[in-house]
Amino acid sequence: MVKKIVVASGKGGTGKTTVSLNLYRRFSMDGEDVVLYDCDVEEPNDALFFPEKIMIENKPVNQLIPVIDSEKCQFCRKCVTYCEFNAIVIIPSVKLAQVNSDLCHSCGACSVACPFDAIIEKPESIGQIAKYDIGFGQGLLEGRLQIGSSMQTMLIKELKNEFPEQGSLVIYDAPPGTSCPVVETVADADYVILVTEPTPFGLHDLKLTVELLDELEKPYGVVINKSGLGNHETHEFLSRKGIEILGEIPFSREYAAEYAAGNLFENVPEEFETVYQQITGKVGHHLAEL
After folding, report:
1. Is residue 255 over pLDDT 90?
2. Is 110 helix (H, G, I), strand (E, B) or coil?
3. Which one of 97, 170, 190, 251 is CB 3.0 to 4.6 Å from 68, fit for a cystine?
């Protein structure tokens, strides 16, 4: 059975992508058949760190959007009544019938409601899903949202439906924040790794993410990135709540420079390797208990 880990954070810039990629590498080195999913569909950048990657597949993802035939429409507004998302505008006095694709969730209720067969559905692109061979492990899958589309959650759902042909472990690199795309990403997770930084901003967003995961009843632990910066309030919060610290990655200007240059896997400090070994060991232990 494939186990699913989500790497998440309450805010951008905490090192979520760095942790996701290094855990993918570390689990691969430990012999796990691991697959990486970049679910940050608005700004996917995991693939940038694999310059030798080979794209295996790139397919479009479409959303079915209803189209109203004004010749058949009797402007009865039944479709408006059925639509839970306020995506349809019908004004009988001026014979106006329109669908707002940004609000439509493609549930099909309007088509069922229409007694005049005036509504058909047409595909509209919301993005793409790409698969890459990245040289080790079982590869990377990436969702990339169409510019202007607001269907992040739908695209993430389609991305997660792309089951790996091989692999026993999946890592989802989640979008930042605590909104619907994050909820969709963690919905079927076996374990969540929260990445934070020991600063007031980091702690504020960590608290929001902890509240979300408690509400969803998901098991989780915390990785403190840029350890040594900020203050001790994050440690005090985690201790008070009884939340496990999976590892602390020291702040390093030299390694940050390597990241900025795209050299994430080069010159990894030995102390970083030790921390990632510690994290994979603890996460592996939690997964074995499921």
Report:
1. no
2. helix
3. 97
| Number of helices and strands in the chain (H, E) | 9, 11
Q: How far is CA 284 from CA 30, 94, 164, 187, 191, in A?
A: 11, 63, 20, 20, 10
**What CA–CA distance (Å, rounded) separates 92 from 68?**
14
Q: What token pair was written down for 50?
A: 């694999």
H runs (alpha helix) in 139-191: 152-160, 180-186
Q: Is the pLDDT of residue 165 over 70?
A: no
Q: Could you read off the pLDDT of 12-55 as tens digits, one per residue?
A: 888 899 999 999 999 998 888 999 999 999 999 999 999 889 99
HSE at residue 229, side-chain half, CA atoms within 13 A, is 17
Give 92's Cβ-side CA count (13 Å radius): 7
Residue with tokens 């602390």: 248
Tell whether the model's pLDDT for residue 134 goes beyond 70.
Answer: yes
Which residues are registered as beta bridge partners of 7?
173, 193
Residues 7, 16: contact at Cβ < 8 Å? yes
Token pair of 65 as six digits: 């959007």
For the packed helices 233-241 and 200-216, what is the interaxial angle rounded to 10 degrees?
20
pLDDT band of 7, cuts 50, 70, 90: very high
Whole-angstrom Cα distance, residue 73 to residue 58?
38
